[in-house]
Design brief:
This protein has helices at residues 2-20, 58-76, 82-86, 96-115, 130-149, 155-158, 174-198; strands at residues 118-120, 160-165, 168-173, 207-208, 213-214. It is built from 7 helices and 5 strands; from the N terminus they run H-H-H-H-E-H-H-E-E-H-E-E.
């Protein structure tokens, strides 16, 4: 009997501890990334562009656009110094760090567009370090590409870019994702290339955006 009693107490204690570990995830998590912990074993996506898709179906073409963005972002943001992050060409311009914050936000809009998640406004920006923000942005782009490659041509018609502010919800077709945040993110990658060159730390030589590989 004493053995059964102690077994019962042990099971009750284990159950209570497990229940304490359950945490409700807020809906706003769709607009936030849990701070990324990076160590030497963490793979940073887009060191080079992935192999060609198996076909020219529309979802693969869209994924290739995201992959191209990911490769550009990987290299334009690699090895930035504190002085580079603080650099701005003029008083009215964003710093490089602020531009990376904007690029992170764009990567969320891109990812949410293929996952069917709303972009809640105002957006709560996580307190990332430079390395955490860089990794989180690249992971968002990689997840988007993987989702597109797993989709069908018909799925593209159902992908929506959704913005939510309070009770007001606005929806846009996948077309807007292409000419909007994807194109905008490529544009801002070009800005970072120019800014880091101006601050004395140009992008690593050997980056070949045509081939999607870097000669190191």
């Amino acid at each position: 009997m004493r053995l059964l009693y102690f077994l019962f107490v042990f099971l009750m204690f284990t159950s209570c501890k497990a229940q304490q570990a359950v945490v409700d995830v807020p809906k706003s998590i769709m607009n936030k990334s849990i701070p990324v912990k990076q160590d030497s074993t963490t793979e940073v996506p887009y060191h080079q562009i992935p192999d060609y898709p198996v076909s020219y179906e529309p979802q693969n073409v869209a994924a290739r656009m995201v992959d191209g963005l990911g490769y550009r972002y990987h290299w334009v943001t690699k090895g930035l110094r504190p002085a580079d992050l603080e650099y701005r060409p003029g008083e009215t311009n964003k710093t490089v760090a602020e531009t990376l914050e904007h690029l992170y936000g764009l990567s969320l809009v891109i990812k949410n567009g293929v996952l069917g998640l709303p972009n809640v406004r105002p957006m709560e920006m996580p307190a990332h370090t430079y390395e955490e923000r860089r990794l989180a942005t690249l992971q968002n782009l990689k997840q988007t590409s993987d989702q597109l490659k797993a989709a069908s041509p018909k799925d593209l018609e159902n992908f929506k870019v959704i913005f939510q502010r309070g009770d007001k919800v606005s929806e846009f077709p996948f077309w807007n994702l292409i000419n909007g945040p994807i194109a905008d993110a490529i544009y801002h990658c070009g800005q970072v290339v120019a800014f880091r060159r101006a601050s004395g730390n140009p992008q690593q030589t050997g980056v070949n955006v045509f081939m999607g590989k870097t000669k190191e």
